[in-house]
Amino acid sequence: MQTDTDPARAGQNGQVRGFAPVAAPDARILVLGSMPGVASLRQARYYAHPRNAFWPIAASALGFDPGLDYAARLRALQAAGVALWDVLQACERPGSLDADIRGDTLVANDFAAFLQRHPAIVRVCFNGGKAASLYRRHVLPGIADGLEYIALPSTSPAHAAVSFQQKLAAWSGALKLRD
Predict the structure, then answer these.
(1) What's the whole-model pTM score?
(2) DSSP E strands: which ranges in the chain?
(3) Residue 7: its pLDDT value, please?
């Protein structure tokens, strides 16, 4: 199983680099954010901000304890067939807001290679509208399609217009596949 071992690197002018994907070879669902926020970059962990709802939502939907240590939470996702990654490999963005990503600096991750290594993936879930729009614009034109795409409400604390319960309802169905 691949884990998040690639530390984020912050450069000048707000340039940030994302993490390696967390994905078991048999992953069936891929969850994509846009680019890790400041708290995540500092801790080199996906969804590290204490008010980000991703881990409580994933734990509830998939039946694991959200209080597990980070490595155990990653293993629980992988055991459930869920992979994590971000649309962007690098960009310039001062702060954590997706709205502040400079469009002329972004570099998308290599999804063609990732999907070739993970042929069981059938669904891509976007953690927020920015991840979905970045993928449609910078990734989708260069890959073979045939996947199911689901845009989900952002788990970010900046997306407070949607309640935790509404987010949980949307995410719960998306993180599970019917056999």
Answers:
(1) 0.88
(2) 15-17, 29-33, 82-86, 88-92, 107-108, 123-127, 148-152
(3) 38
